[in-house]
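queue> pop job 88
queue> type: inverse folding (structure -> sequence)
queue> payload:
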């Protein structure tokens, strides 16, 4: 059923159904009070009551589950219905008793009720970080009832074309908070952060903003020299960046990697770096962007990095911070930034994206790999699976049961060889630039 469709229940809602429902729509309760549960496409859920007050049809916000359970929402709806039948106006009474709330306070109350819905602590921290960095300095102290479109634009416009993905997520988060504030009775009127029919008429579509649309990638021609430069650097962050490059994984997947996710195979004793060809890293669904388990075929080079790492007692993370805990995303990015700064100081252009001339970043290495795989003639699906991307439609994915792990193992070995300055030609391997 399409998003936004109205679902009229043949019987009253149940508490179990309220807890489990996720599909967007309006789920009506029985009893004739006009109560229904609204589920937005972004997953937010709100109790709403539709009543006619003095001949005018109105909608009253009654809070959000789980803070407001089904039984409490029904009690509120029944009370409002009694007021209306007695000739009163529950909406006016609600406005008269409504206290003021700043945007900063609204964020805290919204997150308090939504904590259980976030996939992990990192997701919640990302919410707070983007709002604290960009929204709070400009609208944090404003009353939510006074925030208008122009105020939201003051937050978004400075980063809309330079940090488009961040700005787009920020807009959605502001919209969620403002929607909660309206349902909770702290403001009325349209949502100033709504995209369709609102900000979409003022700001360019994110997909059309090219400057900040893609992460700057490393040029293929520069990859071997970049890899040699990285190999000369020491430290946990530099090693994490090497592993990230060899596996084409996302930064968060590497930084959150725990030792119990790894099967490093066995050393056959003939060589210090000899490993079984079964070394695998299995990332649980809870840590994946696509929310499904992902297996990574580890090359001998990747395993060698892991085996050389120290282990910190009481810390499950493979790549840990100096004071314990997970390595920060900024520390990995800083390695690439310092590499670029060294190049520029030496009078060279450095490692920049050939299209936009911006310095390459860790996430852009995934694009570099994808281009390399395409030029080497590897099957598209195999390369996409290596990047943990969804392949085809939902039906096609249902029939695609194999993750091509062993075929990907050979591909990743060739990728490692390319980074070392080698090019696979059939069964032979030649050094790039070694002829003559």
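queue> result:
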């Amino acid at each position: 059923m399409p998003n936004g469709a109205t679902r009229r229940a043949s019987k009253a809602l149940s508490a179990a159904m309220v807890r489990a429902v996720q599909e967007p729509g309006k789920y009506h309760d029985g009893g004739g009070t006009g109560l229904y549960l609204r589920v937005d496409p972004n997953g937010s859920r709100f109790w709403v009551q539709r009543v006619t007050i003095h001949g005018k049809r109105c909608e009253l916000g009654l809070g959000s589950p789980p803070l407001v359970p089904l039984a409490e929402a029904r009690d509120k709806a029944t009370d409002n219905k009694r007021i209306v039948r007695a000739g009163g106006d529950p909406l006016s009474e609600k406005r008269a008793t409504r206290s003021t709330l700043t945007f900063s306070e609204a964020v805290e109350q919204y997150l308090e009720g939504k904590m259980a819905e976030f996939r992990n602590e990192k997701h919640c921290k990302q919410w707070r970080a983007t709002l604290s960095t960009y929204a709070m300095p400009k609208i944090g102290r404003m009353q939510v009832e006074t925030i208008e479109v122009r105020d939201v634009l003051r937050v978004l416009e400075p980063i809309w074309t330079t940090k488009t993905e961040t700005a787009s997520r920020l807009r959605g988060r502001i919209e969620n908070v403002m929607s909660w504030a309206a349902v909770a009775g702290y403001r009325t009127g349209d949502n100033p952060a709504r995209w369709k029919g609102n900000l979409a008429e003022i700001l360019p579509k994110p997909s059309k903003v090219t400057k900040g649309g893609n992460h700057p990638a490393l040029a293929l021609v520069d990859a071997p020299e970049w890899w040699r430069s990285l190999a000369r650097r020491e430290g946990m962050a530099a090693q994490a960046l090497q592993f990230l490059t060899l596996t084409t994984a996302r930064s968060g997947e590497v930084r959150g990697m725990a030792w119990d996710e790894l099967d490093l195979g066995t050393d056959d004793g003939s060589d210090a770096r000899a490993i079984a060809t079964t070394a695998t890293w299995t990332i649980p669904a809870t840590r994946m962007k696509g929310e499904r388990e992902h297996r990574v075929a580890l090359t001998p080079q990747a395993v060698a990095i892991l085996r050389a790492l120290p282990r910190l007692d009481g810390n499950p993370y493979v790549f840990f911070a100096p004071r314990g805990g997970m390595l920060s995303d900024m520390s990995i990015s800083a390695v690439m930034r310092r590499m670029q700064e060294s190049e520029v100081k030496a009078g060279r252009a450095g490692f920049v994206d050939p299209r936009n001339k911006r310095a390459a970043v860790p996430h852009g290495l995934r694009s570099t790999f994808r281009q390399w795989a395409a030029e080497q003639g590897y099957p598209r699906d195999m390369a996409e699976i290596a990047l943990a991307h969804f392949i085809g439609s939902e039906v096609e994915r249902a029939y695609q049961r194999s993750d091509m792990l062993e075929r990907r193992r050979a591909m990743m070995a060739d990728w490692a060889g390319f980074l070392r300055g080698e090019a696979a030609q059939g069964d032979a391997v030649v050094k790039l630039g070694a002829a003559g």
